[in-house]
Amino acid sequence: MRKFIEKALAKLPKLNHEQITSLIDLLLKEHERFEGVIDSLHEGVVVTDTNHRVMMINKAAYRMLPFSGGEHEYHLAWAVIIDRDISSWVERMLKEGNKAEDEEFYLEKSDTLNILSLTVLPLVRNRQVAGSIILARDITSRKRKEAKYRRAENLASLTTLAAGVAHEIKNPLASIGIHLQLMRREVEYQHSLTEESVCSYLDVLEEEIERLNGIVVDFLFAVRPMDTRMKREDMHRVLSDLLDFVRYELEEHKIELETSFKAQIHKAEIDQKYFKQALLNIIKNAIAAMPEGGHLRVSTYVSGGLLGIDITDDGIGITEEHMNKIFEPYFTTKDFGSGLGLTVVYKVIREHQGDISINSAEGKGTTFTILLPLPKGEHDLISWEEDGEIHYSHR
Ligand SMILES: Nc1ncnc2c1ncn2[C@@H]1O[C@H](COP(=O)(O)OP(=O)(O)OP(=O)(O)O)[C@@H](O)[C@H]1O
Ligand SMILES: [Mg+2]
Question: Residue 96: is its pLDDT beyond 90?
Answer without folding.
Answer: no
